[in-house]
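To assess whether ligand presence alters the predicted conformation, the chain was also submitted together with cytidine-5'-monophosphate. Input:
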Amino acid sequence: ASVVQRLWRGHVSADMLSPRLQRAMKDYVSANKHHVSYKGHRRSALSAKELLCQMKAQAQLRTVDGLEEPFLSLGWAHLVPSIPLEKLFRQQDQSSFKSCAVVTSAGAILRSGLGKEIDTHDAVLRFNAAPTEGYERDVGNKTTIRIINSQILANPRHRFNTSSIYKNVTLVAWDPAPYTVNLHKWYASPDYNLFGPYMEHRKLHPDQPFYILHPSYVWRLWDVIQGNTHENIQPNPPSSGFIGILLMMALCEKVHVYEYIPSMRQTDLCHYHERYYDAACTLGAYHPLLYEKSLIQRINVGPQSDLKRKGRVTLPGFSTVNC
Ligand code: C5P
């Protein structure tokens, strides 16, 4: 069976990857850039319900709130939005989003015609520099939240301050700290410098909700992936896609994810908006994508036909899971 057919069943292993991707993976394992040392268990037999309960308990949404050093001394308690992200979309203690869409940037979404369906959701999450303009038929045009990695803030190529992509939406940025989550070390040497641009943007646009994910949130998500995988996964943070899916599970009653697990339109085209081909974008080299996707397939409650035809996975929001 092909890698994608194996993903549809939720059984994956690194041997299914091409020799080039296997080598890239091994190189990341030996480089261990973020000094990951995992002490937890590795089990692979949890039921979907047990997995969901573990995610709900272990992956509690957390953003930088300015109450820890070095951010406290830098005055971040007043710089970050006054309403925490987990409260931003709540009314009378209930999630205001019944149904949400997570739209990945995979090339396979091209010619899907999913745009109308995506826009019917109460909230839509998109990633990084993925545009809607010119692609509405396939990806829709509504954007509620955009998750951006630190390269978007740091690299002038993305025109973070001027591009309309980043306006009128809630922004959630992230950058990997060392695995031990030393915030001083992180502030002194992030992967890409997001702190300066963040401070500047907050001062210029104090009314736009804009958060930075706490690095411990990112690494606790990684722990969930490793803790439920027998093989050693890449010691690098999960992809923005995985982070976004779990974020929406914390904010919505139901989450529909598009083209994360590839449909039958599967292609090596990396992004729907760029002419760049690399299977690593879908199957992973730096990020533990293959394992993330297998985990998400294990908690999919949608029919197999949605997966194949639409590349669509349906997940329960954490508020609806009774543990
Ligand atoms: O590349 P980028 O991180 O901006 O894409 C957003 C997310 O979409 C990725 O983090 C990944 O989870 C998902 N993706 C994918 N397959 C692709 C491209 C992106 O699963 N070919």
